[in-house]
Amino acid sequence: MVPDRRYGVTAREAGLVACHRCELVSEKDLQRCPRCNARLRSRKPQSLQRVWAWWIAGFLAYIPANLYPMLTTRQLGRESADTIIGGVIVLIEYGSVGIALIIFVASVVVPMSKFLVIALLALSIMRPSRLSQKARIHLHEVIEFVGRWSMVDVFVVALLAALVQLGAAAEVNPGPAAICFALSVAFTMLSAQAFDPRLIWDTLPAKSKMEKQA
Amino acid sequence: MTLLACPACDLLHEVPDLAPGRRARCRRCDTVIVSGQRVSLDRTLAMAVAVTVLIFFALFFPFLSISELGLSNSATLIEIALVFMSGWTAPLTIAVALTIVGIPFLRAAILVYALGPIRFGYPIPDKAAQAFRLSQALRPWAMAEIFFLGSAVALVKIIDLAHVGFGAAFWAFCAATLIIAFERNTTDSAAIWSLIDDME
């Protein structure tokens, strides 16, 4: 590993450690942050292992989240069950394209891109990446910000099931996919949080040009 | 001048005291290191107190109600979380209750606990720094604003099928969410940390 000194030194190279919680810079020998008492670590311990563990757990939960119904509706004796995708299709049929789009983005596009981006970031630490370091930092920032919004569909189910309880006329109940989906969102949030972006900068950018010349 | 490391890439910076509204970005990766926002103790405290009161009241009043063909039903925030209680979605009840009211309430209460004594000239509580650290760690799990988007989606879904009424809790929660969003954009955690630092 060759340290990148073009911009200056990192806290770690200077024998310092910045608290991950309150950002106070301390000597690296300290165990705990003198300001907020958080345990001091220069890098998140076992970052990649934990990223992959949460990633796999999130992915496994995402499969039943799509196969089982998110909610079941009973209207005048007729019962129907909707999966995530099924719910989106019903919304389009009723003409609520905007709402369908919100649910589709929050429940399908965001989780899928989260899996892709986190995997890409973790792999980029394990082998040379074509993406610039800055681009990867931004990807991580975006995924941490956007990921939590996936929960919106779980809240919609909660509200509908709490409100639409009109006996024989209409009744909505949550399906097993709701908890699988919520778990998947929580696990992937933990996966993104476990990723330490500092790892992206701990080695020099890919030396593809130099390698070609050699 | 303060010595700070970029939270995204660990590069050390000597950051000068910034004028209000200015932000310092990392030389290498462009991540915002500090924004020069002054903490207005009065404003932050007022917002935190307002949020705790609003969320507390929102618990006891109906959030939304519907009526159709002579049948009607209303739900409070607690009842909304309780829909998952039967069967194996039961753990979701706790998760939903925490993310929509528990954690947003706790985060506001921590601010009141840590900053309240400073404002009124009392010594800062021993656990203020640890409490504020917890509040920062819980930040991604406070989902009041996401629940609010969820309410909007649910409303559009049922508004054609039944008559919908807005309860007192809906407006209280609406106000709390707006204040939380405003607070997130105007309070800089670094400034609160230095305030706690100065007091200890």
Summarize the model shown:
The complex is a heterodimer of chains A (214) and B (200). Chain A has 214 residues and is mainly α.
Looking at this protein, list some descriptive labels.
heterodimer; A: 214 residues; mainly alpha; Butyryl-CoA Dehydrogenase, subunit A, domain 3; 2 domains; three-stranded antiparallel sheet; two-stranded antiparallel sheet; 8 helices; 5 strands; 10% strand; B: 200 residues; alpha+beta; 7 helices; 7 strands; elongated; PqiA-like (chain B)
The CATH architecture assignment of the largest domain in chain A turns out to be Up-down Bundle
Measured distance between first and last alpha carbons of chain B: 20 Å
Overall 3D shape of chain A: elongated
Number of strands of chain A: 5
Strand content of chain A: 5-15%
* Largest beta-sheet characterization of chain B: 3 strands, antiparallel
Number of separate helices of chain B: 7
Structural class of chain A: mainly alpha
Strand order of the largest sheet of chain B: 6-5-7
Spatial arrangement of strands, main beta sheet of chain A: 4-3-5
Shape of chain B: elongated
CATH topology of the largest domain in chain B: Butyryl-CoA Dehydrogenase, subunit A, domain 3
- Helix tally of chain A equals 8
GO cellular component, one term (chain A): plasma membrane
Protein name (chain A): Paraquat-inducible protein A
Pfam family, one (chain A): PqiA
Subcellular location (chain A): Cell inner membrane
